[in-house]
Amino acid sequence: MAYVNKKTKARSALVEGEIRNLVNTLPGGFVDVSLCNCNNPQMIPHVGDETYTVATIYPNPVGKLLNIKYSVPRKSQSADMFVFNIVGNQMGSYILEVNKTNESVNVSRWPDGLYLMTMVVDGEKKLTNRFIIRH
Q1: Cβ neighbours of residue 100 closer than 8 Å, sequence gap 6 or more
Q2: Number of independent structural domains in the chain
Q3: What's the mean pLDDT in 125-134?
Q4: Residue 9 domain-assigned?
Q5: What is the pTM assigned to this prediction?
Q6: What's the CA gap between 8 and 130, in Å, rounded?
């Protein structure tokens, strides 16, 4: 697959992958994209001045440590991650460094269930991924 900037029509390099849960698109960017094959560094695309936000979470289901691999546009000023349980209670909020590509969260004390991870970049919600905690 290749990623296409809908404004400029620029294409990324070709990478193998599977897109799950493509919910919405915006001109020049992707929203709500989940990529699989987290162990392949090519699955988090880096092309020039990216105009999209991508995140993968693993393992899923998780028991102790949730890993988040992410990429945000290089020109971003801020990136935050929020985790909610299925009834909408916020379980945590995390400031992500825009020049990093991963974060880990200890979920060992959180109850089993379905959770939502939302990324906000420069004050705008960019994506939401689901994960399950099972101890």
Answers
A1: none
A2: 1
A3: 94
A4: no
A5: 0.63
A6: 31
pLDDT band at 35 (very low <50, low <70, confident <90, very high): very low
φ, ψ of residue 29 in degrees (nearest 5): -160, 165
Asked if residue 3 is part of any domain, the answer here is no
CATH number at residue 51: 2.60.40.1930
Structure tokens at 66: 């949730």
Range of the domain at 72: 19-133
pLDDT at 29: 47
Q: Length of the chain, please?
A: 135
- Is 79 contained in some domain? yes
Single-letter amino acid, residue 132:
I
Tokens 């991650």 map to which residue?
81
CA distances in angstroms from 78 to 15, 26, 34, listed in the order given: 27, 20, 21
CA 129, CA 81: separation in Å to the nearest integer? 11
What is the spatial distance between Cα 127 and Cα 84, in angstroms, rounded to a whole number?
13
CA distance 134 to 121: 29
pLDDT at res. 15: 56
